[in-house]
Amino acid sequence: MQISEIMSRHPLTLSPDQTVREAAEIMERAECGFLPVGENDRLVGMLTDRDIAIRGVGRGKGPDCAVREAMTDDVRYCRDTDEAEAVARNMGEQQIRRLPVVDGNDRLVGVVSLGDLALHAGGGAAGDALEDISRPGGDHS
Q1: Please, which pLDDT band fits residue 60 given cuts at 50, 70 and 90?
Q2: What is the CATH number of the domain that holds 30?
Q3: Domain range spanning residue 7?
Q4: Structural domains in the chain (count)
Q5: Is residue 138 a part of any domain in this protein?
């Protein structure tokens, strides 16, 4: 099964010039803790609620600092044509719970979460990924 069959389409995105306050308000309304950051139709980063807490507040930045100051710019993603089981394995190895999904033109087309994989790709791959993700010592950049 390809990721395009199970991903969430039309994800909300942030601009790197928006404030972390705006980002937090969007996350609250959308009931999510992760938003891709795009600029000029390209994925340039990701912002999580943890990024806001650690890279924003934890580093003394106020709520009006730009998203670009708190976002993760080492963007990890998958392609819409990738097989779900391979993506789940990769997410487990990299200890990642959510990934942006890009098409063949590197345009953001969706987001896939561990929950999406568990619901649609079978519990085995998602369960293995969750076990790997839950190991201490993951990438918390």
Answers
A1: very high
A2: 3.10.580.10
A3: 3-133
A4: 1
A5: no
- 139 within a domain of the structure (yes/no): no
- Long-range pairs of 132-140 with CB within 8 A, sequence gap ≥ 24: 132/91, 132/92, 132/93, 132/95, 133/91, 133/92, 133/95, 133/96, 133/97, 135/95, 138/94, 138/95, 139/94, 139/95, 139/96, 140/50
Say if 141 falls within a structural domain. Answer: no
Q: Is residue 100 part of a domain?
A: yes
Strand intervals (E) in the chain: 8-9, 34-39, 42-48, 78-79, 98-102, 108-113
Q: Whole-angstrom Cα distance, residue 12 to residue 27?
A: 9
What would the pLDDT profile of 6-26 be if each residue is shown by its tens digit? 999 989 999 999 999 999 999
Summarised one tens digit per residue, pLDDT across range 91-135 is 988 888 899 999 999 999 999 998 888 887 655 555 555 555 445
**Whose CA is closest to 45, among 77, 7, 17, 74?**
74
